[in-house]
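INTERNAL AUDIT FORM
Audit reference: QA-55
Scope: verify that the stored structure record matches its stored sequence.
Auditor: D.O.
Record contents follow.
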Amino acid sequence: MAAANDLRKGMAIRYNGDVAVVLEVQHRTPGNLRAFVQATIRSIRTGKSSNVRFSSTETVELVDVNRRTLEFSYKDQDGYVFMDPQTYDTETLSPELVGHAADYLTENLAVEVLYAESKPVEMELPSSVTLKVIESAEGIRGDSANNVQKPAKLETGKTIQVPLFIREGENIRVDTRTGAYMGRA
């Protein structure tokens, strides 16, 4: 058991008889009222997210979680297939669990997968990834007075804004949290 004040992102708790992962936590003290903890949690069983409030003195039951590093292999009709580099076991993760991370997955990309009660519940990407530009318009010479950008399609199918000097075939670094161009790789 732990106090609600000790909740952090990525922890797993037992809530209403179900195991849930904490996605976001905020400690609030509104005016002259008592402090409380506002948390966004996602149920492992149903996959639904909800906002809950805990009194700051309330206790919550923590559930054992572990993290494993898996490498992305390929995508098929069942989902996204990952391989454990130590045991060479494969595991298929659902498109709902992968979510927006699918825009950054390339072959052999290492990701952290959070397991609660031996079931995958959350996937974390590295903070930046290197992707290849497969389609981009040519920049116009002399059009560099301001920070002018153009759309570029990446090898994963995602389109982002890049500076004019980026050409097709170049490798660039992309921030996985914001989806923004970071620089050449």
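Auditor finding: record pair retrieved intact. The first strand starts at residue 2 and ends at 3.
Action required: none
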